[in-house]
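Regression check, pyridoxal-5'-phosphate case 483:
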Amino acid sequence: MEKRTEYLDEKLIAYAKSDIYPFHMPGHKRRVREEADPYAIDITEIDGFDNLHDAEEILAEAQQRAAALYDAKKSYYLINGSTCGILSAVSAATGRDGTILMARNCHKAVYHAAYLRNLKTRYLYPVITRFGIQGVITPESVEEALREDPGIQAVILTSPTYDGVVSDIGRIAEITHRYQILLIVDEAHGAHFGFDPYFPETAVRLGADLVIQSMHKTLPSMTQTALLHVCSDRIDTRVLERFLNIYETSSPSYVLMAGMDRCIRLLMEKGTELFAEYATQLKTFYQNVDKLHKIEVFRGWELPETECFRFDPSKLVISAAGCGLTGQQLYQILLEKYGLQMEMCSGEYVLAMTSFCDTGEGYERLFAALSEIEAESSTAFIDTSMDASVGGADLTGFISRVYKRNEKQSEIAQAVDLPGEEIDLVAAAGRIAGDYVYLYPPGIPLLVPGERIDAGTIANIRECQKKNLNIKGVLNDRINVVI
Ligand SMILES: Cc1ncc(COP(=O)(O)O)c(C=O)c1O
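Current build output:
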């Protein structure tokens, strides 16, 4: 039979009518209704509508509203996502061929910035905590690295992480400033911070110099919308703007910018109530799942601050390892049997992303599904074929193995720009990586160009493949290496 042509718009419209519930980004959960037809408000930089690259009028005012809302000195609308804010912030905070101190669990955008500026990278490794989740970057590790290497020009951390772990930004800022160094915080997952005490405080108010937030991840704002906040006088905004001009599209969408302005306005007018209701919904959900015995929902606030300084409760990190299920299996069951689309799965857990646009019905469906999975686990769902690293036997092992420390042979730019070749993964031990290997999501590299591939790396890639995780950088069992 001839395959029917699928068109993206038709597929999306049909999907929007389905009963599948979105526990994923964007934060508007497809529930915001615009009065205007998007085409009717889609313009270019015509008279009266300002220009984002040199904002003086309506867009300058809109950005000032964002700055006032978050208590930033200056805020920039980003229409290429947090990615463009990270590229600009790192570029502005470092010199060409300079040195950056970065968390090893940074998003790939940070690595790309290091590549573009030909930076030397020094890494900070997060502690590993419950379910194998990557925990905080400790202030002590920042201080130690700065003491050892006076060439470091800036520090960048991801806080919160994809899983909701927040580092002690206040203390880290105090340390970096003592060394006359800038602190950049990738708060892509924290645009909802600071509106209600149930959620952590934003790094903007804790002493960071530059903070990047994806509005689209956790707020009712369209995909690709983000903010770059300047929070101190330590950064030269002319240099920052030069890089924004390079990395941001020259045609920022007015439809997206109008949505951002609308979202900021909503937060200014009703943020307090909306976040209070949201906190109540989440508290009820956590109380409900407390009744489960085999399924566990991560409670970062119960961990010592040295592992999880603060936790973002909006991230529902759910493990059914006690039912004998891997993250991938739980993800599949929730989708196929219960119509619940998770944001992602990792070795041992799934991640449900929430926002204040979620409905009571969504939380109830998730709780009912988890209760049923647990009730049936002793019969239908236990997979006895699983290896010992799955399930309760080894909760923290997988992620620490996958994100192990690799031997660095060269800087990223040298390895990427050298001639490379594609070889069989089995033959790669001892070779130097010519490209990234990462799980997507979350987009954190487990292998960075310039790092030596060893038997452990190959075994880890095999383990990810076996767990059916979405691994990038290895295609048909072939990997890029430097010649
Ligand atoms: C921690 C982190 N930083 C940055 C980004 C990039 O954000 P954006 O997709 O808005 O460009 C992501 C995307 O997933 C992320 O998880």
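Comparison notes: The chain has 14 helices and 21 strands. Residues 81-83, 107, 109, 158, 162, 186, 188-189, 214, 226, 442-443 surround pyridoxal-5'-phosphate (CB under 6 Å). No diff flagged against the previous build.
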